[in-house]
Amino acid sequence: MECSHSLTAEKAIIQVKNNGDKPAKFVGYVVFFKNGEKVVDYNRGFCIDDDSEIKPQLTEIEEVPSFYRKTFDSVEIYLTGRCSR
Q: Which helix (H) or strand (E) covers residue 44, if one does?
């Protein structure tokens, strides 16, 4: 898996690519919004297609808002998921 992101004033836009040869299922994310070293907000969800997976060599994109609209200057992103057999 590869993960990249960009930021706007209100959200993080994450791109998750499955660079493997099998589908990745139920790929979840947690995004921590930070101002300096302090975590000011977080959001979580799934970055998946209609089949609840990311197909091999494809990228899924998710817009992740900061619900409390706190000022942030960076994010930390953590991913979870399962590989198909």
A: strand 38-46
